[in-house]
């Protein structure tokens, strides 16, 4: 016991030392008291010369004072270079994976790592993360940087062996060997898994270790458990059980992340039970999401009284939540989403006064939400979506939720004997100030809820299928400039819509969905929207001639209305358009000729209208188009040869029109990935070409009600993906 106290005391003293060092380190954005040492400047210049820097991130590395250079931090008393922070400047995710990859690849550093870094005798912080060093090895001389306390090469496309010289870094406290990178390097091609664990195991001061993405296959038993308090083995390919011998070594951990592995069945539950037997557990974060834990929710979880964060999402835990969760009085985040948990939320949950996030969406919880949830005065994010909650929600459920900013209660779309009903006074003034409210598939109110008017910071409003009727209040339209997501679909709302509005310009994903209501008007011109859904109600009149002004639109979906007139040519100005759905209306005239500027367009659905003429040749010039649905119109002519240029097409529906001529043979030669071909109800003649047998991915082929002759090719029976032929 004495030795442990001594160790903790020394660690505390060392932490204070690091804090003092941080105070006197000068960053490139601050004021310098001394210029950098010439030897350090020369070392950095030599290091820079070995790098590839296509975006000019190191353009500030000029002049005599290297302490003012981007990413360089110095001790402002001695001028010694202490910090070298060269992580990719575009590390913040936008939520769009492809966009993130593009952003990162535009600002990466690459090339070679010069051994001149050895001349930085006082360097204690080195971050090269999320760059692209194109599978070179971590240089062995890194092990000579004896002052290093922080080393982060994560996601920078290093590979090969982790140099055993890392064991020489006796002061190293943080090591991140995250294997995967935005350069699309695979984990299997990253760190070799034979000797590197031995190198890591010899680092005596190591406190934080991340091996995210390293393919380990089994839980490592030889980690340096003496000082280690934080371990991330997320997405590390661990299968099977965690050895019992490792459990006791984890008792002193503060952070344990085993997310996205293959720990399965009862093994995961047994592991949690085993950890709970630690006599003095210091565990603060337990992250076990995306495994295959199966079985009754572990009641023993309530024994971890120091826990701050729990993530058991995306497993197969079942049964009811135990009352013992109320013992976790230090808990700030609880994520149990995407499991099979049933029953009610236990009333002791109200004792978790520090809880900030409670996430239970996508379970099978079919009981009640206790009023004690209103005692969670620290709660800012509450997500109860996709369950089958019953009975009522009252003002008491929100009594002390002053900090609540995001509230989500969108029930599973299943019929229940006693659907959830809100019971609040018409003049209720909630204690919270929401930014996001999501309520769906329950009984909210017959009139538009007046309490929403008290929420001045709303950016996200979803009230879908909640039984509200009447007109949308004027005050709601006035706050449109701050709204990013607006969904009032599947209600009984009526009246007119404002002809012109501007929604939030701060989001590239602003969305409005007013489908399945009773509005009586034309298509409004609402600006700054990426997604506009106005399906299945009483929209009438022509599509506005200046629809092309809505330049930010990605999706325009107005099917199932009473729109008439022609499709305006200005639709070709919507250069960000990805999906256009004008189906099931009364549109007439010809399909516009000019589509070649719509390079992002993926889906065109103009079916069930009264369109005439042929298929414009430029409609097939769009490189992203994979679904073309023009069925149930009055289109005519022969099947355009321009269709064969669109080899990426997967779905083609030209049924119930007046097309004539023969089925072209090139359909079976060029369109090898087609999933659906519908040509029924036309005036096609001739034989069914045998080339159609080349459509090996075809699921549905419908050629019925034409004037075809000859025999049906026997080879069509060999299309194993085919589900339906008519």
From TrEMBL:
One Pfam family it belongs to: LRR_1
Membrane topology designation: Single-pass type I membrane protein
Localisation per UniProt entry: Cell membrane
GO cellular component term of the entry, any: plasma membrane
Signal peptide as annotated in the record: 1-22
Gene3D superfamilies listed in its UniProt record: Ribonuclease Inhibitor
Domain Disease resistance R13L4/SHOC-2-like LRR: 281-462
Domain Leucine-rich repeat-containing N-terminal plant-type residue range list: 41-75
Domain of life: Eukaryota
Keywords in alphabetical order: Cell membrane, Glycoprotein, Kinase, Leucine-rich repeat, Membrane, Receptor, Repeat, Signal, Transferase, Transmembrane, Transmembrane helix
Predominant cellular place of this UniProt entry's protein: membrane
Keyword hit for Iron: no
Any GO MF annotation of the entry: kinase activity
SUPFAM superfamilies: RNI-like
Membership in a protein family: Belongs to the RLP family.
PANTHER family, alphabetized: LRR RECEPTOR-LIKE KINASE, LRR RECEPTOR-LIKE KINASE FAMILY PROTEIN
Protein name: LRR receptor-like serine/threonine-protein kinase FLS2
């Amino acid at each position: 016991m004495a030795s442990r106290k001594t160790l903790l005391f020394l660690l505390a003293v060392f932490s204070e030392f690091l804090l003092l060092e941080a105070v006197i380190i000068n960053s490139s954005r601050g004021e310098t008291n001394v210029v950098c040492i010439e030897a350090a400047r020369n070392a950095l210049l030599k290091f820079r010369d070995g790098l590839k820097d296509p975006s000019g991130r190191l353009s500030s590395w000029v002049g005599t004072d290297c302490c003012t250079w981007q990413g360089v931090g110095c001790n402002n008393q001695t001028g010694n270079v202490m910090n070298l922070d060269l992580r990719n400047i575009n590390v913040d995710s936008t939520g769009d994976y492809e966009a993130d990859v593009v952003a990162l690849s535009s600002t990466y550093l690459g090339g070679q790592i010069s051994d001149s870094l050895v001349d930085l005798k006082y360097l204690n912080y080195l971050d090269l993360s999320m760059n692209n060093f194109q599978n070179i090895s971590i240089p062995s001389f890194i092990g000579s940087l004896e002052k290093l306390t922080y080393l982060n090469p994560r996601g920078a496309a290093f590979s090969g062996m982790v140099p055993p010289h890392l064991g020489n870094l006796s002061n190293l406290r943080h090591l991140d060997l995250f294997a995967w990178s935005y350069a699309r390097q695979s984990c299997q091609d990253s760190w070799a898994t034979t000797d590197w664990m031995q190198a890591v195991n010899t680092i005596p001061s190591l406190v934080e270790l991340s091996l995210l993405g390293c393919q380990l296959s089994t839980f490592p038993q030889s980690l340096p458990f003496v000082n280690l308090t934080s371990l991330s083995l997320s997405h590390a390919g661990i299968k099977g059980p965690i050895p019992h011998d490792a459990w006791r070594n984890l008792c002193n951990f503060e952070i344990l992340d085993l997310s996205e592995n293959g720990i399965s069945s009862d093994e995961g539950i047994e592991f949690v039970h085993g950890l709970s037997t630690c006599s003095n557990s210091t565990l603060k974060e337990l992250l076990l999401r995306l495994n295959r834990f199966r079985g009754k929710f572990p009641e023993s979880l309530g024994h971890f009284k120091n826990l701050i964060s729990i993530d058991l999402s995306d497993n197969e835990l079942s049964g009811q939540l135990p009352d013992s969760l109320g013992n976790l009085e230090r808990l700030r985040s609880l994520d149990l989403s995407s499991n099979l948990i049933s029953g009610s939320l236990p009333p002791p949950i109200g004792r978790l006064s520090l809880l900030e996030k409670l996430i239970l969406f996508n379970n099978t919880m079919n009981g009640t939400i206790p009023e004690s949830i209103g005692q969670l005065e620290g709660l800012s994010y509450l997500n109860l979506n996709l369950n089958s909650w019953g009975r009522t929600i009252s003002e008491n459920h929100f009594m002390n939720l002053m900090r609540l900013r995001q509230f989500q209660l969108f029930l599973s779309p299943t019929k229940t004997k006693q659907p959830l009903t809100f019971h609040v006074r018409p003049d209720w003034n909630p204690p919270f100030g929401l930014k996001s409210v999501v309520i769906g598939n329950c009984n909210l109110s017959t009139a538009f809820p007046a309490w929403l008017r008290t929420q001045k910071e709303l950016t996200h409003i979803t009230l879908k299928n909640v039984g509200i009727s009447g007109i949308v209040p004027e005050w709601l339209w006035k706050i449109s400039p701050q709204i990013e997501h607006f969904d009032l679909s599947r209600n009984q709302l009526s009246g007119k819509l404002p002809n012109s509005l501007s929604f939030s310009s701060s989001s590239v994903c602003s969305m409005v969905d007013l489908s399945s209501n009773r509005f009586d008007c034309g298509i409004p011109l609402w600006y700054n929207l990426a997604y506009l859904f106005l399906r299945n109600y009483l929209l009438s009149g022509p599509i506005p001639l200046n629809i092309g002004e809505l330049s930010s639109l990605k999706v325009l979906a107005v099917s199932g209305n009473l729109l008439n007139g022609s499709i305006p040519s200005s639709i070709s100005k919507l250069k960000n358009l990805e999906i256009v759905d004008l189906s099931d209306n009364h549109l007439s005239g010809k399909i516009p000729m000019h589509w070649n500027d719509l390079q992002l367009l993926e889906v065109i659905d103009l079916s069930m209208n009264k369109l005439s003429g042929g298929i414009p040749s430029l409609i097939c010039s769009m490189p992203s188009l994979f679904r073309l649905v023009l069925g149930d119109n009055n289109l005519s002519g022969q099947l355009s040869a321009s269709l064969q240029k669109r080899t990426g097409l997967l779905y083609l529906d030209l049924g119930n029109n007046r097309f004539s001529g023969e089925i072209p043979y090139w359909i079976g030669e060029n369109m090898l990935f087609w999933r659906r071909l519908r040509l029924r109800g036309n005036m096609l003649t001739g034989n069914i070409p045998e080339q159609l047998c080349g459509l090996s991915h075809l699921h549905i082929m419908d050629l019925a009600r034409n004037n075809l002759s000859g025999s049906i090719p026997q080879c069509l029976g060999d299309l194993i993906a085919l589900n339906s032929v008519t």
